[in-house]
Amino acid sequence: MEVEGKATDVISRTEKSLRENGIEEAGVEALFMVSHLLRVRPPELMAQLLMETGGAVASSGARLEESGLEVLRGWVARRCERREPLQYILGVTEFRGLDFTVGPSVLIPRPETERVVEEGLEFLKAASAGASPLNPMILDLCTGSGCIAVSLAKELPLAMVFATDVSSPAIAVAAENAERNGVADRIEFLEGDLFGAIKGQTPAGPFDLIVSNPPYVKSREIEKLQIEIFRYEPHGALDGGEDGLYFIRRIMAGAAAHLKPGGMLLVEIGHGHSGPAVKFAEDAGAFGEIGIITDYSGRERVLKARKTAPAMN
């Protein structure tokens, strides 16, 4: 890939290379690659490029030196030839306006998961209406990159969050992301299997809110996922068992014992899981206000269930 050093030319030719190799969002990915090299956010770079006049960039710095171009060539090769996800190539991605370190030990945070955070915030703020300050206890199961736990801690300055994962490499990445976003002092990362990870912790519940984005892909479906997911993202964070419901079933069975009266459970679910997930909540015998929340594409995405009891104090 031959490019000039000016950002507009670099983006244009990077996009061309990506598109010719079947990358669907070639323009967006080209912009993110160049932005990362220039150490500016994509909207900022776009604003700079729109200010170009007479072939010169109005804001200095929107050029790449040869060393940067060489790095970019390597990134394009990895993306086109190996189909490595852009987020892993750059080592970082954005979730709810925050930057998160990502790598092959954790799933790449996706916009759909933001619904879990949004619903959690809405619930906590409504449940504490009239009470001050808002200092909830939160449990995040299968934390992965920590995107849910960190986002909640960031927006709730008095919250205490416990975040669990069975993967020690994932816990290390999540802890790094807590440090990166200035909330490490309010998140306790615990390695272990679901609720087993919080046994013996003081305090460790009961919780006002339990959230989770657990593995929920059917085992036999993993190899059918797009190559960027199947080849690079951790299968342990994807595999939800034969029916995709293994972890969802266990979370629904155990959550009530760890929730405060009136506390809320929010669990991300996969396609076709809404019916079984609601049934699991009903069978637990401790939940009311059971329902399904859609994402912004209209897909059923999050199960919510509130422990039957008066509202939180």
Q: Would you mind describing this structure in some detail?
A:
By secondary structure, the chain is of the alpha/beta class. It has two domains: 7-82, no CATH class; 111-307, Rossmann fold, CATH 3.40.50.150. The protein has helices spanning 7-20, 26-38, 42-50, 66-81, 86-90, 114-127, 147-155, 168-180, 227-232, 246-254, 274-284; strands at 92-95, 98-101, 137-141, 160-165, 187-191, 207-212, 259-268, 287-294, 300-307. Strand 8 and strand 9 (300-307) form a beta hairpin. Helix 1 (7-20) packs across helix 2 (26-38), helix 1 packs parallel to helix 4 (66-81) and helix 10 packs parallel to helix 11. Residues 53-61 have low confidence and may be disordered.
SSE layout and pairing:
Blueprint: H1 7-20, H2 26-38, H3 42-50, H4 66-81, H5 86-90, E1 92-95, E2 98-101, H6 114-127, E3 137-141, H7 147-155, E4 160-165, H8 168-180, E5 187-191, E6 207-212, H9 227-232, H10 246-254, E7 259-268, H11 274-284, E8 287-294, E9 300-307
Helix pairs in contact: 1-2, 1-4, 6-7, 10-11
Question: What key phrases describe this protein's structure?
Answer:
seven-stranded mixed sheet; two-stranded antiparallel ribbon; 11 helices; alpha/beta; 313 residues; globular
